[in-house]
Design brief:
Length: about 140
């Protein structure tokens, strides 16, 4: 059973192939949330300035299978794995996929915070940055 599996967390960044309209993002999100809820996957998706940043967390095999599909998705390119680790606690317990559009300054701040600027960083710290950002939205 997938419920017995270790929790895998992945944070990646990517670039949207073209600017996505709100309704296109809503459609992506609706399908993603439905799928994730069935598969025990949670996380956060951010879209800012034509870029995506996503945290995926869930049973190892489910997250690995989903990430393989996401990497092939033609709606984005240059998918870069920033952080990947097994065994950390789940942060976005209540979210089959939290979502926020962010402005350019916020994007920069979060990119640095998760280590996407090349600084080596623990995934637990990066998850904390995303959790704090989300909590601050209220
Ligand atoms: C930035 C981005 C994030 C995505 N996040 C998810 C997700 O969290 N869950 C999900 O099921 N699909 C997500 N997708 C969609 C998948 O890439 C894929 O289209 C979907 O899983 C259906 O795959 P299939 O057409 O091979 O069945 C995302 C796509 C993009 C571009």
């Amino acid at each position: 059973m997938s419920n017995d599996e270790a929790l895998l967390s992945i944070i990646y960044v990517s670039s949207a192939t073209r600017l996505l309209a709100d309704d296109e993002l809503e459609q992506l999100l609706r399908a993603a949330r439905e799928h994730n809820a069935w598969r025990g996957i949670t996380g956060l998706l951010l879209y800012g300035d034509g870029n995506f940043m996503q945290l995926l967390e869930g049973p190892e095999s489910e997250v690995a299978a989903l990430y393989a599909r996401i990497q092939r998705d033609p709606r984005h390119h240059t998918v870069i794995t920033v952080q990947k680790e097994l065994g950390l606690p789940r942060e976005f317990v209540d979210w089959s996929m939290a979502y926020r559009r962010v402005d350019a300054p916020t994007w920069l701040r979060l990119s640095r915070g998760i280590g996407a600027d090349g600084r080596p960083l623990r995934l637990s710290a990066a998850k904390g940055v995303l959790q704090d950002f989300w909590a601050a939205l209220g």
